[in-house]
């Protein structure tokens, strides 16, 4: 984990790939997630069949280069680490995909270890028995 959803307006496969790489690199650098911990849903919106809505909230003028990044991860990271993550995502989205930092909106949703299953119907990060013993590492 984390689980990442990226929605971008008026974008194709190359830009989506670049945005995915930017977010993943930022997560590995600032949150110390391992490089093989990659779970992303990348969606481009054409403005006709699907779109994104936005405004100039907080005085930040956004345009059709808007990107929404939603990250779900286990709780416990301090605010300073999250601020570093947001900053790094914006920097790398600009470097890799040409996205203006003002157009990068990031949300983080935190949950508990028992809220994850990575396959086989098992909560790999949750205790496996009544005694609270965690399962063997995979």
Description of the molecule:
This protein has 138 residues and is an alpha/beta fold. The protein has a single domain, classed as Macrophage Migration Inhibitory Factor (2-Layer Sandwich), CATH 3.30.429. The chain has two helices and four strands, in the order βαββαβ. The protein has helices at residues 13-30, 79-97; strands at 3-9, 40-45, 67-74, 104-111. It has a four-stranded mixed beta sheet, with helices on one face. Helix 1 (13-30) packs antiparallel against helix 2 (79-97). The two termini are 14 Å apart. The mean pLDDT is 92.
Spatial ordering of strands, largest sheet: 2-1-3-4
SS element count, helices:
2
Query: How many domains?
Result: 1
Let me know the CATH homologous superfamily.
Answer: Macrophage Migration Inhibitory Factor
Strand content: 15-25%
Strand count, sense and closure of the main sheet? 4 strands, mixed
Low-confidence stretches: none
Q: How many angstroms does the end-to-end distance come to?
A: 14 Å
Can you summarize this structure?
This protein has 138 residues and is an alpha/beta fold. It is 27% helix and 21% strand.
């Amino acid at each position: 984990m984390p689980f990442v959803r990226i929605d971008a307006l008026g974008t194709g496969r190359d830009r989506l790939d670049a945005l995915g790489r930017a977010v993943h690199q930022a997560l590995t650098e600032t949150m110390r997630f391992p490089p093989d911990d990659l779970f992303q849903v990348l969606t481009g919106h054409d403005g006709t069949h699907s779109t994104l809505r936005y405004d100039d909230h907080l005085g930040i003028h956004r345009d059709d280069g808007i990107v929404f990044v939603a990250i779900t991860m286990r709780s416990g990271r301090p605010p300073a680490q999250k601020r570093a993550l947001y900053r790094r995502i914006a920097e790398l989205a600009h470097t890799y995909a040409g996205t203006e930092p003002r157009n990068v909106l990031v949300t983080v949703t935190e949950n508990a270890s028992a809220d994850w299953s990575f396959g086989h119907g098992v909560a790999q990060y949750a205790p496996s028995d009544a005694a609270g013993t965690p399962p063997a590492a995979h």
